[in-house]
From TrEMBL:
It comes from Leucobacter komagatae. It comes from the Bacteria. This is tRNA (guanine-N(7)-)-methyltransferase. Belongs to the class I-like SAM-binding methyltransferase superfamily. TrmB family. GO terms for molecular function: tRNA (guanine(46)-N7)-methyltransferase activity. Its EC number is 2.1.1.33.
């Protein structure tokens, strides 16, 4: 467990911090809307929202053992998109619990449909701002790994403040990761990869979990459309991994 103090949570001022996304509704087909209404109760965490549509209301806390009905290693994917990565991982690792965090409902709906079709019991979804879930909803030291693969690079310099990976995110990740837990990062944007490495190299309580300039490609990561697009454009795919010490 970390000895870092837990910050008081005031939902009326949280949005003074820039979030790392611009929320778009995304269109769902009538069949997807029906499946969302019918099956989301089996997967979507019931988290009361604060003033912002994806914020976590004050006092909202979740116990992973109660959420999943068992004690097991927990992995959280931040920005799960349509769920390709986490669905594959949950199917291959039934002994592990997974939480997918995503703010785009269309992506969550597609994840729900595939999870229901696969009969997955070790996957839950959270429709909230990921840093709030990690800092205020999940218990301290409760997560084995956090995955952040191909987050929005916010390419323009004036938007860099909106990048997810920051000193504050490192602080939050340190709080929620168990001792020895790992933060895995991946991007196809070199400037963001350099930024991530500088931030995490300087982050208190973390050490590199790789040798050389970059980590080897995480073997547990499936090839998604985001990664394929970067490869097709000739961009280098950069992996990083940092262990909580």
């Amino acid at each position: 467990m970390t000895d870092q103090p837990r910050r008081a949570f005031d939902p009326t001022t949280f949005r003074d911090k820039p979030v790392s996304f611009v929320r778009r509704s995304g269109r769902m087909t009538p069949s997807q809307e029906r499946a969302w209404e019918e099956s989301r109760g089996d997967f979507l965490l019931e988290i009361e929202h604060g003033p912002a549509a994806t914020s976590v209301a004050a006092g909202q806390h979740g116990n992973p053992a109660e959420i999943f009905g068992r004690e097991a290693e927990l992995i959280v994917e931040v920005g799960s998109g349509q769920g390709h990565q986490i669905l594959s991982a949950a199917a291959e690792r039934p002994e592990t619990n997974f939480i997918a965090v995503e703010v785009f409902r269309a992506g969550l709906a597609r994840t729900v449909i595939r999870a229901a079709d696969a009969g997955l019991e070790n996957l839950r979804l959270a429709e909230v701002n990921a840093p709030e879930l990690l800092e205020h909803y999940l218990p301290e030291g409760s997560v084995a790994e956090i995955w952040v693969f191909f987050p929005d690079p916010w390419k323009k310099a004036k938007h860099h403040k909106r990048r997810l990976i920051s000193a504050d995110f490192a602080r939050i990740a340190h709080r929620v990761l168990q001792p020895g837990g790992v933060l895995r990062l991946g991007t196809d944007w070199q400037n963001y990869a350099d930024h991530m490495r500088v931030v995490m190299d300087e982050a208190p309580g973390f050490e590199r979990d790789f040798e050389g300039e970059w980590a080897e490609r995480f073997e547990g990561r499936v090839l998604t459309a985001f990664e394929n697009k970067g490869i097709e454009k000739g961009r280098a795919i950069r992996d990083l991994s940092y262990r909580r010490v």
